[in-house]
Write a structure and sequence with these properties.
Elements: H1 31-53, H2 62-79, H3 88-99, E1 103-113, E2 118-127, E3 134-141, E4 147-154, H4 163-167
Antiparallel strand pairs: 1-2, 2-3, 3-4
């Protein structure tokens, strides 16, 4: 069957097909469903208030339970919708300054920290030598640009892992 429905990424999240520079979507988009959840919670309370006063068999206290759950999810979504002020390129620059060695290859990945899902850039960087002598893992806060954590070590892949060749 060739007409199967396939799951697809939205256009603004599909970085593979973009030729130009790709801007990672801002994390503050999480607020939109949060406001929808809060609006639905108000609707549930309204339906319960109208239907409960008429002794309806279709409206019960489940609407209040749904309103409470929707309110909790709405608050979580709205409060975790941080506006990102640092993009991945800026995070790479901040990480390069922090590691203390010239950076060759590096990659950035967005991750979230804490209960309120604060967006953070996880930068993995190698030094410029071939093979790289140092590597570093740097966490850069995507909201305010501060360095959350920096771990730098000698690259174990650049050291000879074969003990037989050292004994020779």
């Amino acid at each position: 069957m060739t007409d199967d429905i396939r799951d697809q990424l939205p256009e603004d999240l599909n970085a593979v097909d973009h030729i130009a520079a790709y801007d990672f979507p801002d994390n503050s988009r999480r607020r939109i469903p949060g406001y929808i959840y809060l609006l639905a919670a108000v609707g549930c309370v309204g339906v319960w208030a109208v239907g409960n006063s008429n002794d309806s068999v279709l409206v019960n206290n489940g609407f209040i339970v749904a309103a409470v759950l929707l309110t909790v999810m709405g608050i979580i979504s709205v409060t975790s919708g941080w506006r990102m002020s640092v993009n991945e390129s800026e995070a790479l620059v901040l990480a390069t300054k922090e590691v203390g060695f010239p950076v060759g290859h590096a990659s950035a990945q967005q991750v979230w920290r804490g209960l309120r899902s604060r967006p953070t850039w996880r930068i993995f960087a190698y030094s410029t030598e071939e093979p790289p002598v140092h590597r570093g893992l740097i966490l850069v806060d995507a909201v305010d640009g501060r360095i959350v954590e920096c771990l730098v070590e000698d690259n174990p892949e650049s050291v000879n892992p074969d003990p037989a060749s050292a004994e020779g």
